[in-house]
Amino acid sequence: MIDLKARPFKPEHAGKMNFYLSAVDDLLRHPDDKPSIGIILCKTRSRVIAEYALRDLAKPVGVARYKTKLVESLPDDLKGKLPTVQQIQKELACLRQAERGRQATRAS
Q1: Are residues 57 and 79 in the same domain?
Q2: Is there a single domain that holds both residue 57 and residue 12?
Q3: Residue-wise pLDDT tens digits, 49-62
Q4: Domain range holding 6?
Q5: Residues 60 and 79 in one domain
Q6: Rounded CA gap, 97 and 13, in Å?
Q7: N or C: fewer beta carbons within 10 Å in the chain?
Q8: Tens digit of pLDDT for each residue in 22-50?
Q9: Would the pTM of this model clear 0.85, i.e. be above it?
């Protein structure tokens, strides 16, 4: 699970990631899968704050800074293989619409 934050790391991000990982492991993980891993990518982070925020979490979670021009730093063999922002937004919109349809079906 990757959580991309457009702001500096805050301790509460670790709690949210722990929640997300619990939900993913409960609802999506196949019995043969290993437990999920969380990565929080932030604009900036304080190593000390990240260490304290993650210290007692039972789930594997990491915090890292991202480069704003990440695509430019990709190896040549990966450029063009990752989805565009527009493709991701379209896929998320489709998933939201499908979920609304399932909720409407359950409600009726």
Answers
A1: no
A2: yes
A3: 999 999 999 899 99
A4: 1-66
A5: no
A6: 27
A7: C
A8: 999 999 998 899 889 999 999 888 899 99
A9: no
